[in-house]
Amino acid sequence: MKDIILVDENDNEIGKGEKMAVHLEGKLHRAFSIFVFNSQGEMMLQQRASTKYHSPGLWTNACCSHPRPGEALEEAAKRRLKEEMGFECELQKIFSFIYKAKVEELTEHEFDHVFIGKFDQEPILNKEEADNWKWIDPKKLVEDVIKNPKEYTCWFKIILTKIYDK
Question: pLDDT for 108-121, tens place per residue?
Fold first, then answer.
């Protein structure tokens, strides 16, 4: 089983816990979300694999995950982007926030660190993580999220409102 980092409201490590147990109990833990843009300003979306344990088939940002205990946040973000989407790019942290949301029988309670990067090629998808991907104009994306909110992950919609304050 995979352990993830438990944190307090200031992102101080307070322990670790098994990933599924942490999500079942709704404990606050460290996470990251990566947003990737191309030189035309379009955002890369991934469609979560239909086999994922929650939010299967939903559209979301390019990559999101949890650092491992003892792993630096930035290194974890780069590692997971490569593992999920098959590419590397420079990443810059732009903000962090806490959210709590019920996702099926689980609770996402994350201290989420948001990174952005630039990339102009096609990803090489890890089919265990993502079924599909696309580039989308941010304005069209915001309109589609408003029209079809159930097609997107809960954390993605929260971050989107923080990036594109309507």
Answer: 999 999 999 999 99
C-alpha 109/C-alpha 151 separation (Å) is 21
Q: Are the CB atoms for 11 and 111 separated by under 8 Å?
A: yes
Which CATH number is 3-163's, of 3.40.50.300, 3.50.50.60, 3.90.79.10, 3.30.930.10?
Answer: 3.90.79.10
The reported pTM is 0.95
Q: What pLDDT, in 10s, does the model give residues 22-59?
A: 999 999 999 999 999 999 999 999 999 999 988 999 99
Report the C-alpha dihedral over residues 162, 48, 141, 31, rounded to 10 degrees. Answer: 10
Could you list the active site residues?
A: 64, 110
Provide the residue ranges of all domains of the chain, joining segments of one domain with +. Answer: 3-163
- Count, residues in the chain: 166
Angle formed at CA 26 by CA 19 and CA 11, multiple of 5 degrees = 80
